[in-house]
Write a structure and sequence with these properties.
This protein has 323 residues and is α+β, with helices and mostly antiparallel strands. The chain is built from eight helices and seven strands. The mean pLDDT is 86.
């Protein structure tokens, strides 16, 4: 399925017209066209690629999956690859959707690799800032990038909140270590994925602001700069959160080790105390005469020795914080 729009001198003139009519509108002065295609094949792009002079390598990249976020420049157009992301707040799992964009002087062609990319929200942004539509392809591209980058920012903000909750769990009296380990690994995996798509976008947005591309004029430049600032902040935020998740995991392991050492000290201390009556009663159980043998005084002496030494060890261990 395809979606189309025609702007004339900054005013929306037509939409959802046949793709075959694009060639009729391109020669018109002040005409700007948007074409959206979902999961097309090379044959689907063949007709429009001839009309717009799209490079063969760019068309191949547009239909292939798992391309790196990038901006390639050709003689007649530029080719952009980007990813939109969505975070499942319940599981902390991040999913991405790939998008390819052909940028010409009078047309913007978006190629979605799946229907998960909410192109309708991009259209709503265009309609909400229609006063900028007179800036042509630069206006359309900004709305698209703004939607993508806002998705990065929302995802990293949500990840930050989940990591804060994970921090609170570290020092909780009762911790489900398996659940905490699962959540920390899921969050770290999501941060790695987010970093992989956000970092290249800094170079992409920065390159789009170059004067020779003629996309960000004096009016649109502050808007592109705002998008770049959001990408930069999302990138730095992602880096800091990756380090924070690692620190949380290391802290959890350290606390577990300290608790294990405390338990071992307590067990060892009680074992030492229990060893005292065992040793004394074992000694008095010898089949040889000893002071107090077969006398009541021998029982009281052995009992006093057991209680005295055990209490002494207990006080000593408590003073050294072993119990």
């Amino acid at each position: 399925m395809s979606r189309t729009r025609l702007y004339r001198d900054g005013v929306l003139a037509k939409e959802n017209f046949p793709v075959a009519d694009i060639s009729d509108y391109l020669p018109e002065p002040g005409a700007v066209i948007w074409l959206d295609m979902c999961a097309p094949t090379e044959d689907d792009l063949a007709a429009i690629s001839e009309e717009l002079g799209l490079h063969r390598l760019a068309v191949e990249d547009a239909v292939q999956k798992h391309e790196r976020s990038k901006l390639d420049r050709y003689d007649t157009h530029s080719f952009l690859t980007a990813y939109a992301v969505h975070l499942d707040e319940k599981t902390g799992v991040l999913s991405d959707t790939e998008l390819a964009v052909f940028i010409t002087k009078k047309a913007l062609v978006t190629v979605r690799k799946s229907e998960d990319f909410a192109i309708g929200e991009v259209v709503e942004r265009w309609d909400a800032s229609s006063e900028l539509a007179g800036h042509g392809v630069g206006f359309l591209l900004h709305g698209l990038l703004d939607y993508v980058v806002d998705g990065y920012f929302e995802s990293v903000q949500s990840l930050d909140e989940q990591i804060e909750a994970l921090e609170d769990m570290v020092f909780a009296p009762r911790v489900d270590h398996k659940d905490m380990q699962r959540r920390s690994l899921a969050l770290r995996k999501s941060l790695v994925m987010l970093r992989r798509v956000v970092l290249p976008m800094r170079e992409v947005v920065n390159a789009l602001m170059r004067p020779d591309l003629a996309l960000a004029d004096e009016t649109m430049r502050p808007y592109y700069q705002d998008v770049y600032d959001h990408v930069l902040r999302a990138s730095e935020w992602t880096e800091s959160l990756r380090d924070l998740v690692t620190t949380i995991r290391e802290t959890q392991l350290t606390i577990q080790g300290n608790r294990l050492n405390s338990i071992m000290k307590k067990v060892t201390s009680w074992a030492a105390i229990i060893a005292v009556p065992t040793a004394v009663t074992g000694f008095y159980g010898q089949n040889v005469p000893y002071p107090g043998f077969e006398q009541l005084t021998g029982f009281w002496v052995s009992s006093a020795v057991i209680v005295g030494i055990s209490l002494g060890l207990y006080v000593l261990f408590r003073r050294n914080d072993w119990l």
